[in-house]
Design goal:
homodimer, 409 residues, alpha/beta, Carbamate kinase, VC0802-like, eight-stranded mixed β-sheet, six-stranded antiparallel β-sheet, 34% helix, disordered C terminus
């Protein structure tokens, strides 16, 4: 008998009919398994609540936001439990607090501190399907908290870890993790397996299937995560630890992120403390910087560049113009529309020449590279936004990702 | 400094604009007082949730119903707390479980067993307005429960008792308790005061301002209840314990209930156990009987009559036809449309002739009385439904209720 944690997102439970579909899907796995089903709020529920909050207050209190938002999942769990009952199954719903999901007190973006899953375990032992509200928990002050973006995935993975589940299945509106965005690359291939580290790079580089937080949690506790489609029965992508035969694969996928802007601060005096001063000023405005590049200095001066979400671009430029004056830099240049294109693969660790092949491929297409950054298992290039799709297709082709894995060695 | 519990119903918090109005109303009382504000779900929220539940299941589980329904009030408390913050007030919301409202396990109609109001008291001591979800609690098994119809009023009264509040104010869409329904009797007068016992009779006899359960609770714990309009600043009606000067008043009000049906079982053998057999069969079908009348027997036989909600009429007739055969009664007669008209007043206790005056008044209007029932402070008559309005107007006139109280002595 396997213990399976399943998670269904908001679009999978958007109305009564879809909830009944999920119930039927759950029923298919019910016989012979212990099941925990984590669900999100129905479709646009959260948006509707946020609108109400902003109608009554210009700056709603985070504690009260959590109090309000947590109701979304609470409705879904009750409805799904009812729908399971209607199919003749034993099921019981649990809120985040009831499921023993304890968090810190950072309302609207709380972090899980521990899980006391006793009550869920009792339900499973009694032969019940446990239906659990994702996204929410209880702080040490007994306040209702929410986990922020991707919180329901995190609930599922964390519960799977606490219950030592055999697998955590994330049901979503895509069929799995692909070698590139199928909307851009027609012969993009669904990956049957991917390592946690590759998935982390993919997640942070713009593949929207799973949030980084959930993958980090899964990696830390060794939870196998299976990304599958809610609407199709196909096997999806298993995110798991690295196995020996994966070493052979050079590049697993090509990702891209077209939501970025680029800012450079030019001829900064190259002395200790300058980077801290620049990025301290940015952080103070709660702007999250993505890629940072600084090259060696010449004549005691250097240039610093970084990318950031496009929406923060104007604020960042304003902050940096001040900073540039203070540190006596020459000035700043910026571009509100850039794209980041990356190749990801654990095989890069033991192979050289991957980056060179990437740069050559982009050159062949006449695409100028504005910034380069590398990690152990990824190479990222910032390019002009208009070349994004061309770059992804060219790289997918160059690394032969459309063919079977064996062919790409 | 007074401690005031206020309760606002669903129509008072139906949208963001109305919630802001309630916040302004609360703000008027905030200075110099400790305030607990109990709220219901927004307008039609509960109906919407019930529809969803019936879309996923023909017979939703009561535990899951409570899980779902409790979200309605949880949204309102968060929004009201935000709206109070926006006015610069300190406020904190509490769910039923957080407020220490403990109940039995009778889901969808739980009874309050005890209240541990420590957390609310702490908020009040910290100078915060406590915004509390009505209608909900936590069972001894740590399950979310709801209190059934009129549950939010009950939450308010029970909290007022637990906190030893100076007054419990029930804000509603009517201005108070009237001597009769102002829609029927144009010169009906708003009563400035009414005793718990009178209010109980009024509540159970069809005045829809307050549910009997809340009045019983208020009487038991001596909580003064002030019924007021959400939308008008006028003083409403204070429901309180009997005071000496009230003795002078003979009749306080005329109530009517047009939602009743009548069933009689004829020539029942008059022997011990028969009434139990008849009403046992009715109770088994969860039909709640209102007025029961049985006269003395003749020749060893008697007739039993009772009234019940019109919606249960058909089921009751079916049950009783069986029972009539079993107990060898002659048969049953029934009427799906009757009205009950009553006069209420603590002064009746010490005055005779009140009932006679009522009967004479109805006779003068040519209204036949089908059943009569009396309590210590009320006389009720069942009449043909079409005479209901005429009867109420005639009785209101006969007992001079439209004038000032002094004149009615």
């Amino acid at each position: 008998m396997a213990l399976i944690v399943q998670k269904y997102g908001g679009s999978s439970v958007a109305d009564a009919e879809k909830i009944k579909n999920v119930a039927r899907r759950v029923a298919q796995h019910a016989s012979g398994n212990q099941l925990v089903v984590v669900v999100s709020a129905m479709g646009k529920t959260t948006d509707g609540l946020l609108t109400l909050a902003h109608q009554v207050s210009p700056a709603p209190d985070p504690r009260e936001m959590d109090m309000m938002l947590a109701t979304g999942e609470q409705v879904t769990i009750a409805l799904l439990a009812m729908a399971l009952h209607a199919l003749g199954l034993k099921a019981r719903s649990f809120t985040g607090p009831q499921v023993g999901m304890r968090t810190d007190t950072a309302h609207t973006k709380a972090r899980i501190t521990r899980i006391n899953a006793e009550r869920v375990q009792q339900a499973l032992d009694a032969g019940e399907i446990a239906v659990v509200a994702g996204f929410q928990g209880l702080s040490e002050q007994d306040e209702i908290t929410t986990l922020g973006r991707g919180g329901s995935d995190l609930t599922a993975v964390a519960l799977a870890a606490a219950l030592k589940a055999d697998v955590c299945e994330i049901y979503t509106d895509v069929e799995g993790v692909f070698t590139a965005d199928p909307n851009i690359v027609p012969d993009a291939r669904k990956l049957p397996r991917i390592t946690y580290d590759e998935m982390l790079e993919m997640a942070s580089l713009g593949a929207k299937v799973l949030q980084s937080r959930s993958v980090e949690f899964a990696k830390k506790y060794g939870v196998p995560v299976h990304v599958r489609s809610t609407f199709k029965p196909d096997p999806g992508t298993l995110v798991t630890k690295e196995e020996h035969d994966m070493e052979e694969v050079l590049v697993t996928g090509v990702t891209h992120d077209r939501s970025q802007a680029k800012v450079s601060i030019l001829r900064v005096p190259d002395r200790p403390g300058i980077a801290a001063q620049v990025f301290g000023a940015i952080a103070e405005k709660n702007i999250v910087v993505d890629m940072i590049v600084q090259n060696i200095s010449r004549d005691g001066y250097t240039d610093m560049s970084f990318t950031l979400p496009r929406g923060d671009h104007t604020r960042a430029v304003a902050v940096l113009e001040d900073v540039a004056r203070t540190v006596r830099a020459q000035g700043i240049v910026h571009d509100q529309r850039v794209a980041k294109v990356s190749i990801v693969g654990v095989g890069m660790r033991s192979h050289s020449g991957v980056a060179a092949r990437m740069f050559a491929t982009l050159a062949r297409e006449g695409i100028n590279i504005q910034m380069i950054s590398t990690s152990e298992i990824a190479v990222s290039c910032v390019i002009e936004d208009k070349y994004a799709e061309l770059a992804v297709r060219a790289l997918h082709e160059a690394f032969e990702l459309g063919r079977e894995r064996e062919a790409a060695v």
